[in-house]
Design brief:
Largest sheet: 5 strands, parallel
Shape: elongated
Oligomer: single chain
Strand order of the largest sheet: 5-4-6-7-8
Strand content: 5-15%
Number of helices: 19
Order of helices and strands: HHHHHHEHHEHEHHHEHEHEHEHHEHH
Structural class: alpha/beta
Length: 485
């Protein structure tokens, strides 16, 4: 494989294929559908390849040996449905121009109203849009957000269930991830289409005015119940003054009410005002929209960093260790087995769950100081039956969060609330659901947003896959991670 091929970025079909494969692998953490041995062997075969090529070649080998149902699902998912038809970006601007052209701009009686000129409304609307765009841009920069709003002219139809729970789960997750990655670019393209259409609408109005003016004689006048001739003159000079300076066409004298004057200079000045106040600002917004589209293109290297890391570790035989730190609790063997099953559904069947000695009440500070060698995955386990305390549990969770965030490598973390004792205490009580909800809320208030919280209750022990899905955000690093850190 030559160097040009190795450095070629991922195409959209290749990226979508990897999104689906990643979702399929994580939905099959135990390796029942795609064996862990095959995943490891596929990675080992291409360990020397660069990031994108490693994942592509590994994925192709996995697919070559995968069940036909997975091959068919990936092939169907690989080529996305466009967010809108290809003809739409051409049709909408063309229709905008046509609407402008066929609008009866100059009046059926061949008289132009100086106070109800058609371009005046377009100019006012355009200025409002420009101001709104500037305010939206400033808010985005201040808040550090992506797109200030979300919309979709067309959206892909929801995936049809295949009857295979594994493939359906993988497809739903892959579609959700793709929609999140695609949304900023779709918004930027929608804005660009909006600005281009506004320019062509204005061009259609101006072109229509001049086309009709070439074959008909128009005159300008005005009527008003409230305004006088001096007031209309001041308004005309204020609105058309910049265009007059630019074109060196003086603003004509406003005729008396009911009187008429040649319309040509008025048409020239309004056309110049449209170019100055509509076309120029919109062209600037078009330029900004093009830059925004480029910036919102997905960074596939960042998207697949964790996927590549886990695939390489599996191929190299490096274990992923999930270290469980029990605080004020000592999980017995059945509880450990239940948690191990959930964590393997969450982080992959190859993860090794390492239970640490329990931390007693009052030993939290010593625990934080001793925790210097952080694992790839960290689990803070707390008893739900204990009343949470900000000075104890809150500070411990915050301290662990700071350590994880300061680590140079991407780490995953999870908080587990062991509900075994609390459930047993409430067994048979009608207020059990309410008490469980209140206690969970109390814990979440104390723990804050340090790590995702999993309630290890009877339902979680019975359905480890569903329990893992409820805290799927724990599959991602605690914070965005780049090699610059």
């Amino acid at each position: 494989m030559d160097s040009a091929t190795r450095t070629r970025p991922l195409t959209t079909p290749e990226a979508r294929q990897l999104l689906f494969l990643r979702a399929a692998e994580e939905a099959d953490a135990s390796g029942d559908r795609i064996s862990l041995t095959e995943r490891s062997a596929a990675g080992r075969a291409f360990l020397e390849e660069s990031g994108a090529d490693f994942l592509k070649l590994r994925g192709e080998r996995i697919l070559a040996r995968a069940p036909d149902t997975l091959k068919a699902a990936v092939a169907k998912f690989q080529y996305p449905v466009a967010p809108w038809p290809r003809w739409l970006p051409v049709l909408v601007p063309a229709l905008a121009f046509a609407v402008g052209w066929f609008t009866n701009e100059l009046g059926a009686d061949r008289r132009v109203s100086l106070l109800a000129f058609p371009l005046l409304g377009l100019i006012l609307w355009n200025l409002a849009v420009v101001v709104a765009s500037l305010v939206s841009g400033l808010r985005k920069k201040k808040k550090g957000e992506g797109a200030g709003f979300r919309f979709a002219l067309f959206s892909a139809p929801p995936p049809q269930p295949s009857g295979d729970a594994w493939l359906d789960a993988a497809q739903i997750r892959a579609e959700r991830e793709w929609a999140g990655l695609r949304a900023p670019g779709d918004v930027a393209r929608g804005k660009l289409l909006f600005h281009v259409s506004a320019i062509l609408l204005t061009a259609g109005v101006v072109a229509g005015m001049y086309a009709r003016g070439l074959v008909r004689a128009y005159e300008a006048g005005w009527e008003s119940t409230f305004l006088t001739q001096p007031q209309v003159s001041e308004l005309a000079r204020a609105v058309l003054g910049p265009a007059s300076i630019l074109t060196r066409i003086p603003v004509p004298e406003v005729p008396p009410q009911g009187g008429l004057s040649p319309a040509a200079p008025w048409i020239h000045l309004w056309a110049a005002s449209a170019a100055l106040l509509i076309v120029v600002p919109r062209l600037l917004l078009v330029s900004g929209g093009i830059q925004e589209i480029r910036k919102t293109a997905p960074d596939w290297r960042a998207v697949f960093t964790r996927y590549e890391t886990m695939a390489r570790q599996m191929a190299a035989g490096q274990p992923l260790v999930a270290r469980v730190l029990p605080v004020q609790c000592q999980p017995d063997s059945p509880l450990r087995d239940s948690l191990r099953a959930i964590l393997q559904h969450l982080w992959g069947g190859q993860v090794i769950v390492d239970f640490q000695p329990g931390v007693e009440y009052g030993e939290e500070d010593e625990c934080l100081e001793a925790l210097t060698d952080l694992p790839t995955h960290l689990v803070l386990m707390l008893p739900m039956s204990v009343t949470p305390e900000h000075e104890v549990h809150g500070l411990l969770a915050h301290g662990l969060q700071q350590k994880v965030m300061a680590h140079p490598e991407p780490l995953r973390a999870l908080t587990v609330l062991d509900a075994t004792a609390f459930e047993a205490r409430l067994q048979g009580m009608p207020e059990r659901p309410r008490r469980m909800a209140e206690r969970r809320a109390a814990w979440e208030k104390v723990l804050g947003s340090a790590f995702p919280v999993l309630i290890l209750d009877e339902a979680a022990r019975r359905s480890p896959g569903e329990a893992a899905a409820s805290v799927a955000q724990a599959r991602d690093p605690v914070r965005p991670w780049t090699t610059a850190h």
